[in-house]
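Hey team,

Filing this mostly as a record. A colleague (T.K.) asked me to run one chain through the structure pipeline before their review meeting, and I want the input and output archived in the tracker in case anyone asks later how it was produced. No errors, nothing strange. Just documentation.

Input sequence:
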Amino acid sequence: MKILLRIILLILITDVYSVFSQNKSDLVYVDDNGNLKWTETNNNAYFFGVNYSVPFAFSYRVIKNKNLSHKDVIDLDVQQFKRLGMNAYRIHVWDREVSDKDGNLLNNEHIELLDYLISKLIENDIYIILTPIAWWGTGWPEPDIETSGFSSYYSKLESTTKPEVLAAHQNYLKQFLNHKNIYTGNTFSTEEKIIAYEVFNEPVLPKNAAAINNYVNSTVKVFKDNGITKPIFFNISENPDSVCWKGVASSDIDGVSFQWYPTGLVKYSELKGNFIPNVWDYKIPNYTDMLSDKAKIVYEFDAADIGSSVMYPLMANSFRLAGMQWATMFCYDPTPIAQYNSEYSTHYLNLLYTPKKVLGFLIASKLFTEETVEEKKIDESSIAFNNAVINYDKDLAVLNDGENFIYTNSNNITALNEKLLQHIAGYGNSNLIKYEGKGIYFLDKIEKDLWQLEVYPDAVWIKDPFGKNGVNEPVAKLIWKKHKMKINLKELQLNFSLFSEDGTKIIDADSFGVLLQPGRYFLSNKSTLDVAINKKNKIDFDLIKNFGSFISDFTQTELKNLTPQTIQENQAAKIKAKVYSNENDINMFVYLKRETWRDYQKEKMIAVDDFNYEFDLPEDLLKNGQINYFISIEKDNNTLTFPGKINQLPNDWDFNQTDYYNIKILPDTNEKIVYDPIKDKNNLIVSNIWQFTDYHIDYTYDHNQNSELSILVNKIKVSFPELAFQIYVGGSLKESDIIKETKIKVEIKNINNRIKSLPVRFLFNDGSASSTEIILTNNYQTYELAIPEPDNTKYALLPRPYPTFLSYWFLSNGVKPNSKKLKLESIQFAIPLDKIDVNLNDGIKIKPIKIITK
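Output structure:
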């Protein structure tokens, strides 16, 4: 009995010690079980937000070169962080810009702007983790420029192994921690809302546990010697090796940091297809059992090169299931340069320019910071967890928890309990709000019978935003244009009143509808507002406009032609286009002619909504041959004709434009090309396993001038089962192309006659898959492959998820065979590497892929 009492007493003493051994002025601490907890309540603490780099590197230079105020940019963007529910900010400080070779801190403009940013984050209750050492150069995406900092002189590996570099690191860390913020008056070491530190952004570590211990403990000692009792983290995911993990985990740290890029980085075009399998889970390998008492954070994450809105909520769920308590996306685009997406073109997130994605991020923020977390449940059409629903086919994520109704795209979901609703945020139409604009909107309840409405400008992507972008040609634009909004809240009357920010009445609603431009408003059933308006979550729309014409004018109308370039004879077809303009009343015409016609036939296009226009092609035009056409906008004797944006009409006597749109009308056949290697090169996804295999991709032609995709394996450096590549074909298929009634026709051969067989996997829109295998020769063979029903096929996650300890494989569970929504999206080929000589050049060639329908 005495022994039992002693054990109980020891447990109690240990628990008390774990709480009170922390400095009570620290906002958070790490308990003995590796949980990050609030010091005041002992409850688990969760943080979700972004990285953001205006004080440093490329963002700093571009904003300076455009003669904009860095501080004004920070003011605007931090407002957006708050608006999006973020409570976390992290950045790796570009030490090369703020130090010299010996590690002395330079109190320059970069440090001053970091001071200012931190002060604004603190004002908005956003918590901070700083990573003092980045090592990286400051050029990207431009070439690196000469800098004075200590990291300029040593490799990453030398940075963690050479004694002279360690001395510079220690000197720099001491001065960094004791730097006094000129805006708050506190040093970085005493700033309350800087709740933790991460030592080194992405170190390269020696495969020697003792050497790792020496570096980590020597740097951690600097923090502790300078009064830091807050949690200190060290990166563990960059070096996926058991020796490195044990070396880090056995050192004097409180937590470990991870990153996640599940779709790779820097494709220079948008990824197409369903990448939900890439973010289904985040499994931490069992490299060491010494992580149980370490807190876990995600310093960087993103589903790069993806414009869809569904990825962030799923990632947030996977992180929480993995035990993460902090996650910060890399990297939020500063608003004045977000139109270019040039800082990190593989990432794209901004409240104004990426409305659907940012709503997904808002949902993720709320999911991540909830105490409870649920496993994902999947059915034929959606994924559900924690009052959230994800539907890939509709590019739709919804959070519907009673208090919040947030959605990333149009839907007909019923709010859980309208009487309890406090916050609505969305894009497009729902049962509560109908809106034809292409910007985000927020509707927040202030008090009974009083709602605050924020409507943001239309955001349009005029080209692929994930390309190789500069700082002069926009990839996206904002349109400040009026649209009708219908608000169907039961609390509001048919003729509710719309008020401006200062309380001035603007208009009464007409059957719940109002016509409004972007801005901030208040809604009430009262005819006057006789109480002070609580300006919660305020976004300063004037500050947005004050940045200049780039943000507020759209003087040049843009047109995006959505008409297919090839159709089949005698099948119904439309000329379809999107128009982006400040004008509301647009007259649009299409000028058509067959190759042999002398003049163009003028036809009026019909407005489908505020952006989309269509014209049904008549039957007599749908004959084998080619239609050439222009699209013109005509108003008040002014004309704008596309392509070319010229101020003439196609039937003008001196019209001499040779660049035109065209439609090829092909014979009615059951075969059509769904992948042409050269034309569709952006639809190819390759495996980023360069550390294992040297391979080469090229585009060639056969004797009949058919394009070919050539993939050549040069050398195998480390054993790996396969080199997989994936071709997206979903954009060329119709809903009527049911897999039971279609075949894939492919011509393929091997190079050097050593690859005898090739696995072929069919990936469907719901994440399921099926597979077959073909036998190859060194001459082209034509294969007609039936598409098997989904089964338990294992397929590669491409691009290879990073970090590389994450699974390469995804096991498909299949769906019900008769699912009407099942659609083929991608075809994955896998070159077996275990059957190839490590130094021999082997590969395959593929000609255009066709689909055969009944």
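Quick notes for T.K.: Confidence is low (pLDDT under 50) at residues 7-21. The chain has five domains: 1-39, 46-368, 377-552, 558-669, 672-853.
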